[in-house]
């Protein structure tokens, strides 16, 4: 055990070096060939299968599993990717236990669904490991489309548009493409540079130019994009972070969870990422769990995830909640932040215990904290955007915004449930609609 | 506990489970292990005539059809009869029989269709003390090219002739093992009976090409890029074996001839089914080759438990019990009307019944928006396909309609009385007879 293990404060290298590799390796190791065959054998090839209905991208799951079972994993991958170009990432990060696997009839029959997510990964990995890109571009249309945001929605739209023969320029404010796949997902869900590898693989379709370091703003206005391109797709996600709105929030050590997650993802050596001995994460979504679990994996001794409502209201799936608990994260519910205490840097954080209607009960909770990670939601940033309601760009079923010629999808747009897979579906569907408009079909 | 002992042709064994003449019974080492594991009897792998033994290929001998999770459903082989020296086999048989007097030990034999060949080998076998012989007229591969095995079993006259020699030169029971590679199994069985056979055993393996290697374009198992048909066995052949056994049990010329049932016996239930169709015991190979000799313990315990449940105290109690119910299609009751019924509590909404019925049968299952599947009795012909494709056993059942009720499909009242095709007005023969 290193000397630093029990030290208070924010320190790197709290664990033995080999512990980091173990902690941040694949959460679900890839299925081997034999495991995949055994898992695939369990699929009943249902009629009009419930798993397809449950998949936001409508992947023909029974077909791709049968293709695996009959020894053609590359055909399986093509079945997946033709519906969901980021099928590899979705296989890793989808809450399958709430989507396809929850709908699996074997979940009903035996409480053990077919391992759809892991089989999807088996197939897509098999294809992508060979560097094969199975799609080709249609004849050039001469049309140009701007995509803002190189996350799941933007890249999905870009790929589909490129495949249909349009030329696409993707703008992203970050240094790398990938969006939340690259910056916003726990390291153990997508290790070994998978996210970047997937982007590189996706771009093999051709016809897509990525311009990083460019966000909507004075240097890149929507008006300019509208003028220079035949269509615009907005998929820039939610760039802002909600504030706690309590006294002491500005103290050192009070950080945004998304920045912590991004720092970890970009770290060349996670052992060098400093972490508090006592860490408190505020929030109830996937970001909160990703931050809490990773704080624990970095060697924080005490990690508490505090949520103001009950567990049933948490956006993090039951699987994610259980994962956090299994890693030693303490989950406290019905506690709302009241004040951050400390002299310059945070030392403690105080909560009100609250009822379901957020009324303080009079009881409070004080937790020691070297670090506080805020994960209470993100907000849309930017001026001059199409009509916004409840913090999101209003879109119709085809992804059309209030402005003609501008579509939107992913987390920045209304509808959906802030999942990678939903963003991919919205990007794809908006691309199909853009294509219809550009080709004069409607 | 039920008494599993059998007396087959006067040969006693503690249970009806014998190992068939095959690789598992090729030598003393295996046979001793089999007896220790609990097998009631063994048919020693086929002996050939004295002289240089046959040789086997030095490449793969087996190929398999796999089911889910690589379960062995069908096995084919191109192995020949024993490739060990005759005297070695005889010495081992003598020793083993002496050490296991309570177990059945039968010697399988295949020598050329010449009287002298049989006259030579039979006294040698008799001297071992083995309980009987089984004439291998069945192997469809290799030896058949040399005029033996299935080549004999396909000519009833040869069967009768060789059987007669055996009864002449051998004093103990003679079992004739039949090949299924013929058009009507009753003819070779009758020939065996005419020749004096004490019993028949069937089926031997079926001509088969198990698969083709799509890289090398060679049938499997492939020997240096070439394949040859082999003999097919395992669970997949059980229905063929049951049918052939039932034909022999029913035919006047062969009824009552003792039968040793062979073909895909994998569980106690398979064995019980063979016995109900008239078999005095069963022989097993593929199940042992797949799971090892221990599998007999399940067969023993399962058969025993079932017999206790049914009140059968001995094998004789239910032997042949299904033979009277095995009939020709023309005698099936056309007034029997059933309808599929889906138990909604058991249904997991996979929709396989719907796909099967809608695409390939009678459009007799309805599917609602919430994936509730229900039978449309106006269309249901009770074909049973939905029952068989449903992954949940007994979720869909066939429910007979009561006499006097109206079949919504035909609009006709279900008759109480039995009526078959021979009596049906649509049958020209029935009309002509009136």
TrEMBL record, chain A:
Q: Which Gene Ontology terms cover its molecular function?
A: dihydropyrimidine dehydrogenase (NAD+) activity; iron-sulfur cluster binding
Report domain Dihydroprymidine dehydrogenase positions.
Answer: 22-131
**What name does the UniProt record give this protein?**
dihydrouracil dehydrogenase (NAD(+))
Q: Which organism is it from?
A: Sulfitobacter undariae
The record's catalysed reaction(s) read: 5,6-dihydrouracil + NAD(+) = uracil + NADH + H(+); 5,6-dihydrothymine + NAD(+) = thymine + NADH + H(+)
The job of this chain, per UniProt, is described as: Involved in pyrimidine base degradation. Catalyzes physiologically the reduction of uracil to 5,6-dihydrouracil (DHU) by using NADH as a specific cosubstrate. It also catalyzes the reverse reaction and the reduction of thymine to 5,6-dihydrothymine (DHT).
Q: Superkingdom of this entry's organism?
A: Bacteria
Q: Where is the FAD/NAD(P)-binding domain?
A: 144-427
Q: Which InterPro entries match?
A: DPD_II (IPR028261), FAD/NAD-bd_sf (IPR036188), FAD/NAD-binding_dom (IPR023753), Helical_ferredxn (IPR009051)
A Pfam family (short name) is: Fer4_20
Keywords, A to Z? Oxidoreductase
Q: Does the keyword Disulfide bond apply?
A: no
Which E.C. number(s) belong to this protein?
1.3.1.1
Q: How does it assemble?
A: Heterotetramer of 2 PreA and 2 PreT subunits.
TrEMBL record, chain B:
Catalytically driven reaction(s): 5,6-dihydrouracil + NAD(+) = uracil + NADH + H(+); 5,6-dihydrothymine + NAD(+) = thymine + NADH + H(+)
Q: What EC class does the entry list?
A: oxidoreductase
According to its record, what are the GO cellular component terms? cytoplasm
**Gene Ontology molecular function:** dihydropyrimidine dehydrogenase (NAD+) activity; iron-sulfur cluster binding; metal ion binding
Per UniProt, which keywords does this protein have? Iron, Iron-sulfur, Metal-binding, Oxidoreductase
Task: Report the residue ranges that make up the 4Fe-4S ferredoxin-type domain in this protein.
Answer: 338-370, 371-401
EC number of this enzyme? 1.3.1.1
What Pfam families does its record include?
Answer: DHO_dh, Fer4_21
Q: Which SUPFAM superfamilies match?
A: 4Fe-4S ferredoxins (SSF54862), FMN-linked oxidoreductases (SSF51395)
Q: Which family does it belong to?
A: Belongs to the dihydropyrimidine dehydrogenase family.
Briefly state the protein's biological role: Involved in pyrimidine base degradation. Catalyzes physiologically the reduction of uracil to 5,6-dihydrouracil (DHU) by using NADH as a specific cosubstrate. It also catalyzes the reverse reaction and the reduction of thymine to 5,6-dihydrothymine (DHT).
Per UniProt, subunit arrangement is: Heterotetramer of 2 PreA and 2 PreT subunits.
Protein name stated in the entry:
dihydrouracil dehydrogenase (NAD(+))
**Source species, please?**
Sulfitobacter undariae
């Amino acid at each position: 055990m290193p000397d630093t293990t029990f030290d208070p404060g924010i320190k790197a290298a709290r664990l033995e070096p080999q512990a980091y590799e173990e902690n941040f390796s694949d959460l679900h190791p890839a299925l081997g060939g034999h495991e995949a065959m055994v898992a695939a054998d369990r699929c009943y090839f249902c009629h009009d299968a419930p798993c397809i209905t449950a998949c936001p991208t409508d992947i023909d799951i029974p077909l791709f599993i049968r293709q695996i079972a009959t020894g053609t994993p590359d055909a399986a991958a093509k079945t997946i990717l033709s519906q969901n170009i980021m099928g590899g990432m979705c296989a890793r990060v989808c809450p399958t236990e709430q989507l396809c696997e929850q709908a699996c009839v074997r979940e009903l029959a035996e409480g053990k669904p077919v391992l759809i997510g892991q089989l999807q990964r088996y197939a897509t990995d098999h294809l992508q490991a060979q560097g094969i890109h199975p799609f080709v571009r249609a004849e050039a249309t001469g049309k140009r489309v701007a995509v803002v945001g190189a996350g799941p929605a933007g890249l999905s739209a870009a790929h589909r548009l490129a495949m249909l023969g349009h030329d696409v320029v993707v703008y992203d404010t970050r240094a790398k493409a990938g969006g939340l796949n690259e910056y916003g997902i726990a390291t153990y869900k997508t290790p070994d540079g998978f996210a970047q590898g997937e982007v590189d693989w996706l771009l093999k379709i051709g016809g897509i130019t990525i311009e990083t370091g460019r966000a909507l703003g004075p240097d890149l206005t929507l008006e300019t994009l509208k003028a220079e391109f035949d269509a615009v797709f907005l998929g820039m996600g939610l760039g802002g972070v909600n504030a706690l709105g309590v006294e002491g929030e500005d103290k050192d050590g009070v950080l945004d969870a998304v920045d912590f997650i991004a720092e970890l993802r970009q770290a060349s050596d996670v052992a060098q990422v400093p972490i508090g001995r006592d860490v408190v994460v505020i929030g109830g979504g996937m970001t909160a769990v990703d931050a809490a679990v990773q704080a624990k994996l970095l060697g924080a001794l005490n990690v508490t995830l505090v949520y103001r409502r009950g567990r049933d209201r948490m956006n993090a799936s039951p699987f994610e909640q259980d994962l956090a608990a299994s890693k030693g994260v303490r989950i406290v519910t019905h506690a709302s932040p009241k004040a951050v205490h400390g002299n310059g840097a945070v030392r403690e954080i105080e909560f009100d215990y609250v009822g379901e209607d957020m009324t303080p009960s009079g009881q409070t909770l004080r937790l020691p904290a070297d670090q506080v990670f805020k994960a209470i939601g993100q907000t849309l940033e930017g001026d001059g955007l199409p009509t916004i309601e409840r913090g999101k760009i209003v879109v119709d079923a085809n992804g059309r915004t209030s402005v003609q010629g501008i579509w939107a999808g992913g987390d920045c747009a209304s509808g959906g449930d802030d999942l990678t897979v939903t963003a991919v579906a919205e990007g794809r569907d908006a691309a199909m609609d853009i294509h219809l408009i550009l080709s004069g079909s409607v | 506990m039920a008494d599993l002992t059998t007396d087959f042709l006067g040969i006693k064994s503690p249970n009806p489970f014998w190992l068939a003449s095959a690789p598992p019974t090729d030598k003393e080492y295996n046979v001793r292990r089999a007896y220790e594991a609990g097998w009631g009897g063994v048919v020693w792998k086929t002996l050939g005539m004295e002289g240089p033994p046959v040789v086997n290929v030095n490449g793969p001998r087996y190929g398999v059809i796999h089911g889910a999770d690589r379960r062995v459903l069908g096995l084919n082989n191109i192995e020949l009869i024993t490739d060990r020296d005759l005297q070695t086999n005889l010495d081992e048989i003598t020793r083993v029989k002496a050490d296991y007097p309570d177990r059945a030990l039968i010697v399988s034999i295949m020598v050329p269709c010449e009287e002298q060949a049989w006259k030579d080998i039979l006294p040698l076998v008799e001297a071992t003390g083995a309980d009987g012989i089984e004439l291998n007229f069945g192997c469809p591969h290799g030896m058949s090219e040399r005029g033996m095995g299935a080549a004999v079993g396909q000519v009833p006259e040869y069967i009768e002739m060789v059987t007669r020699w055996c009864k002449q030169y051998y004093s103990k029971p003679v079992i004739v093992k039949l090949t299924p590679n013929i058009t009507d199994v009753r003819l070779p069985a009758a020939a065996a009976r005419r020749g004096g056979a004490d019993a028949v055993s069937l089926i031997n393996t079926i001509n088969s090409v198990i698969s083709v290697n799509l890289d090398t374009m060679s049938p499997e198992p492939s020997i240096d890029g070439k394949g040859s048909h082999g003999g097919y066995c395992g669970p997949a052949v059980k229905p063929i074996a049951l049918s052939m056994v039932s034909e022999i049990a029913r035919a006047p010329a062969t009824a009552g001839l003792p039968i040793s049932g062979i073909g895909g016996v994998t569980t106690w239930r398979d064995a019980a089914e063979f016995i109900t169709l008239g078999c005095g015991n069963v022989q097993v190979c593929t199940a042992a080759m797949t799971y090892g000799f221990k599998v007999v313990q399940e067969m023993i315990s399962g058969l025993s438990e079932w017999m206790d449940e049914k009140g059968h105290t001995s094998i004789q109690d239910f032997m042949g019990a299904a033979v009277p119910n095995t009939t020709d299609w023309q005698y099936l009751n056309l007034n029997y009307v059933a309808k599929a019924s889906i138990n909604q509590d058991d249904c997991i909404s996979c929709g396989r019944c719907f796909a099967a019925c809608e695409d390939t049968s009678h459009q007799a299952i309805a599917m609602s928006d919430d994936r509730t599947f229900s039978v449309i009795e106006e269309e249901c012909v009770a074909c049973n396909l939905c029952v068989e494709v449903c992954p949940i056993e007994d979720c869909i059942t066939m429910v007979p309609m009561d006499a006097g009720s109206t079949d919504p499909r035909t609009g006709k009242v279900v008759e109480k009385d039995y009526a078959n095709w021979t009596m049906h007005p649509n049958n020209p023969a029935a009309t002509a007879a009136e």
